[in-house]
Design a protein that fits this description.
Blueprint (H helix, E strand, L loop, with lengths): L6 H24 L38 E3 L17 H11 L3 H12 L6 H11 E6 L8 E8 L1 E5 L8 E4 L6 E4 L11 E7 L2 E4 L3 H7 L7 E5 L2 H10 L1 E5 L5 E9 L7 H7 L10 H10 L4 H5 L6 E6 L19 E3 L10 E7 L6 E10 L10 E7 L1 H9 L1 E11 L9
Parallel strand pairs: 3-16, 4-10, 13-15
Antiparallel strand pairs: 1-2, 2-17, 3-17, 4-9, 5-9, 6-7, 7-8, 10-11, 11-12, 13-16, 14-15, 14-17
Helix pairs in contact: 2-3
Length: 417
């Protein structure tokens, strides 16, 4: 290009040349030869339809708990006509010695007093059917059966002074243990109480069994007696009352005074869970044999139950032990219940079976006691009486059963109020 050609013309010529070259290249790309043709891709498969998710269903609300007491007819009580209600009359009279002061019970107890000490079976049956209404006990899930166990008044050996084999303390209530009645603040918790101790400016739970044993002589609690066997003492605590045979052959009696506030845990279940005993061997006798064979693990087993019972000495007598109602228990006619559902002192018809059998056990009893392990609507503890034979029956009893509480006509069950 001549150097004298104006710059504008030179730029125009250059742009034209570039455009022609580009056009030529574009033409060659758009018209390839047959041998360079690209293969035709097949159309992609159609996407499968997305599944239709079902609409979420709302969770069903939990079924409301069944009413713990449901009115029933006398005909619903198994073999009511075969039991002898007069056999429960002494226990009824002891219950009425307390209940007669309550308005709801006054008429029924006054009528019982008018029949004397020993009415006929027919008169006793007529009395109950006239003055009471049966209410069936029902669990929250609607089931009508529950666990029926047994207890008794044991006899252990001991002394008022420590010495020889008598080295295991039977404690009274510690002076530093607080009892906090929750019902004083929250009426709906009237059956609940806490046990604690003060440390600094805090109230802490009271000591467990293991902690109490570790404190030893530092525990500010009176020692009522010294027992000669730790397992016998443990079962005395489980039963809640008993008699102590002293070295001179005389008898002393102790009853439940208080408890350390920790829940009862079964050492029989602990032994089963540890693989030490099978379930059918986890009876009182089986536990005692295991303890004799494993003395080095005695403390470990006992401490599996953090609950600890404190006692008070009672006057010696031939009556039964004093139950939670404050009256002597009657062999074979007193039962421990959960007072949240069954008023103390009320008649209870029990339908269950004898220990380790299917032989029916249907009888009228009196709700005169409670227990740390007796929790729930259909839950009872059958009092077998005093001594080794009663202990054998109680130790074997773990049956299913049904219960009806008999309440005076016109009385609304407290559990339904």
């Amino acid at each position: 290009m001549h150097p004298m050609i104006p710059a504008a013309i030179r730029r125009l010529a250059l742009a034209s040349t570039v455009a022609l070259i580009a056009a030529g290249c574009a033409h060659q790309t758009e018209a390839p030869g047959p041998e360079a043709a690209a293969p035709t891709c097949p159309p992609p498969p159609a996407c499968p339809a997305c599944p239709v998710c079902p609409a979420p269903t709302p969770d069903k609300p939990p079924a409301p708990a069944a009413a713990p007491l449901q009115r029933a007819d006398w005909s619903a009580l198994p073999n009511w006509q075969l039991d002898d209600p007069a056999a429960a009359w002494p226990a009824l009279r002891t219950s009425c010695s307390k209940l007669v002061r309550q308005t709801a019970w006054k008429n029924a107890c006054t009528a019982a007093e008018s029949l004397g000490r020993a009415p006929s079976g027919a008169d006793a049956r007529r009395y109950f059917e006239t003055h009471f209404v049966p209410w069936r006990l029902v669990n929250p899930d609607g089931s009508m059966q529950g666990l029926i166990t047994g207890y008794y008044e044991p006899l252990i050996r001991g002394s008022r002074t420590r010495g020889g084999r008598n080295t295991w303390p039977v404690h009274g209530v510690p002076r530093d243990m607080l009892t906090i009645e929750l019902g004083d603040v929250y009426p709906e918790l009237k059956h609940l109480r806490l046990r604690g101790r003060v440390e600094g400016n805090k109230v802490l739970p009271y000591f467990t069994r293991e902690e109490l044993e570790q404190r030893g002589a530092q525990l500010p609690a009176p020692i009522l007696f010294w027992a000669d066997d730790p397992i016998d003492l443990f079962f005395l605590q489980v039963q809640g009352s008993g008699r102590i045979q002293l070295p001179d052959g005389s008898m002393a009696r102790v009853g439940y005074a208080d408890q350390n506030g920790h829940p009862y845990q079964s050492i029989g279940r602990w032994l089963v869970a540890k693989g030490e005993l099978s379930l059918d061997k986890a009876s009182m006798d089986g536990i005692k044999r295991w303890a004799q064979d494993n003395p080095h693990r005695l403390a470990e087993m006992l401490n599996a139950n953090p609950s600890y019972v404190f006692f008070r000495e009672l006057p010696s007598s031939n009556d039964g032990p004093i139950g939670a109602q404050g009256v002597p228990l009657t062999e074979g006619r007193s039962i421990a219940v959960d007072p949240r559902y069954v008023p103390l002192g009320a008649p209870v018809f029990l339908s269950t079976t004898y220990p380790l059998s299917d032989r029916p056990l249907n009888r009228l009893m009196m709700a005169q006691d409670t227990g740390g392990a007796i929790k729930g609507v259909v839950r009872g503890d059958f009092f077998w009486g005093f001594g080794p034979e009663a202990g054998r029956e109680a130790g074997r009893m773990r049956q299913q059963g049904s219960m009806w509480v008999l309440l005076p006509r016109g009385m609304t069950p407290p559990a339904l109020q």
